[in-house]
TrEMBL record:
Residue runs in coiled coils: none
Keyword annotations of the record: Membrane, Transmembrane, Transmembrane helix
Lineage: Bacteria, Bacillati, Actinomycetota, Actinomycetes, Pseudonocardiales
Keyword Nucleus: no
Membrane listed as a keyword: yes
This protein's name: DUF4386 family protein
Residues annotated as transmembrane: 12-30, 50-72, 84-105, 132-151, 158-177, 183-205, 217-234
Length: 235
């Protein structure tokens, strides 16, 4: 039997709209006491490893969790503005992929700083900072994707003026490896919260209650997934 289901589902998208921006803002605020450029970020990791690990982990988690929200938003925009939805949605998703790629480099560099010292990690990063890779050619999507998607959301009347402006401020967020927090970083992540968190809460409140079968499957799946996550970390 066919349904009107749209991947990844209304509740998943709603949770993504709430948690994704909040985690990005949390990570941004946690690393705000330290200077923006990578030598200071690496030194901070040597001195405050727990705080910096939490900051970068929260930011990465928020970045990854955003994709269902973006897919759902682009789908909604596409009902009236399909071309804008396609360009904006794809650009933002490519930008999220690139930030995830950067996060892998961040993790390696911060690990070096913690184990071998900030000086050693700084020399490795500085020598390889300009190395070309696939995402070198897609860096523009990190910024411009948010502008296009915000404009599309406004034109399609999916977000109001405040929400669209809030989403557009994400384009101010600095890009690249081991970037700390600037004032515009806080504006961008807080703006995304303004744009998506209220919409996510509304979607959760308006969603129909899950049936008993769904609740039972969820009750079984959660501990199984937790166990799989634990086993994965052992490898």
């Amino acid at each position: 039997m066919e349904t009107d289901y749209v991947f990844p589902g209304r509740r998943v998208a709603a949770v993504s709209m709430v948690l994704g921006p909040l985690l990005l803002l949390t990570g941004t605020l946690l690393r705000s006491p330290f200077d923006f450029f990578f030598p200071s970020q690496l030194k901070a990791m040597s001195v405050h490893p727990t705080l910096m690990t939490a900051a970068y982990t929260c930011f990465l988690a928020g970045n990854v969790l955003l994709w269902p929200a973006i897919v759902a938003l682009a789908t909604k925009i596409g009902r009236t503005k399909p071309a804008l939805a396609a360009w904006g949605g794809l650009f933002v998703l490519f930008g999220l992929f690139e930030r995830t790629f950067h996060a892998g480099i961040d993790q390696a560099a911060l690990g070096l700083a913690e184990r071998r010292g900030a000086g050693f990690a700084e020399s490795v990063v500085s020598e390889s900072y300009q190395d070309l890779h696939l995402f070198s050619f897609l860096s523009f999507t990190i910024m411009f994707g948010w502008y296009v998607l915000a404009f599309a959301a406004y034109r399609a009347k999916v977000l109001g003026v405040a929400g669209s402006i809030g989403m557009a401020t994400m384009g101010l967020l600095p890009l690249g490896v081991l970037k700390g927090t600037e004032f515009v970083s806080i504006i961008g992540t807080a703006g995304l919260c303004v744009a998506l968190v209220p919409a996510g809460i509304r979607a959760l409140l308006e969603s129909p209650k899950p049936n008993r079968r769904t609740m039972m499957l969820t009750a079984i799946a959660v501990p199984v997934l937790g166990a799989l996550a634990f086993v994965s970390a052992l490898g």
